User: Fold this.
Amino acid sequence: MIPEGFRFAGARCGLKNKRNDVGLLVSDRPAALAGLTTQNLVHASCVDFMRGRIEAGSLRAMVVNSGNANCMTGPQGERDTARMAELTAEALGLRPEDVGVASTGVIGKLLDMAKVERGIADAARSLGPDPRPFLEAILTTDLVEKQASAPVGPARLYGVAKGSGMIAPNMATMLAFLCTDAEVDAPTLQRALHRASDRSFNALTVDSDTSTNDMVVALANGASGHRPSEAELEEALEQVCVSLARQIARDGEGATKLIEVVVTGTEDPKRIARTIADSPLVKTAMFGCDPNWGRILAAAGRAGVPFDPRQARLAVEAAGEEHVLFEEGSPAPFDPKRVSTALKSDCVRIDLQLGEGTTATVYTCDLGYGYVRINAEYHT
Assistant:
């Protein structure tokens, strides 16, 4: 599952109340680098830092901290980001320019660099093939760790991600790290990652909030000696990224189910699917297992994409059954109790057909009491 030539580590330095909070991902040889970062104008210093690394196109290691986003912290925050790279380089015997930095957590607080320095040193001494300490180190409000893998011919691709709330990426996800031992140049990796992200992380929403620290990073160190075609690479990237996006949606703060919104037809089905997925009324109906199809169609109608509602067919799929709720301009006959029972499933698919054309899928979750509680108490 783990590509050749990559090692991981995690350590607890005290930025969070529990669990590891500093992680390292290290390639034992130079690696091509690709990445995407948040388009939020309010963003952390690590975002600007990584944009420079991505432009250079190569990297050996990533250092990540959780519990503190180091965002909007002024010149000192910028110095702290650079210092994290320097400390990691010193601990690993690398150049500072070989190291990337990512942070996640509370906005507007300076890092406790004494703790971070200790955490980096501890993590550097515990590098190994097991990714679980690193997985734990990148979590914030996540309830579960998220990982996925796929073959790239004889090579391997492995990815991890964190994200549970403040998820409406405009590039990627909260934080995702992908590594492969395939032999790929940086421009090819960047193109493939961009397309795969559009069909995965950019088709993901939990609460319609784009984070200040969103980042997806991909490293290819060529240790397998296999040079895949761009199509082969993209297929593997999409497989891993879609899996991670689904895992993030299912782990949405306070969520009880993964929801896939699938829209077919019109000039922009993804925009319609995203509007449905972002609708609080649709999401709360799903939480209450209420087959309130009017909320779904109303959301579709305000997306700003022309279609004829009389031609719409709306169905939900859950528990291995499809239930048609609306078609040919009228409500369809269905058993509300049976549909409500089906909606208690861990995964629900909303299928809206609006005519001929392409299909788009957006991943989201329901909206329940837990989301309000978690975010009302997040800072205080």
Summary: The first strand starts at residue 6 and ends at 11.
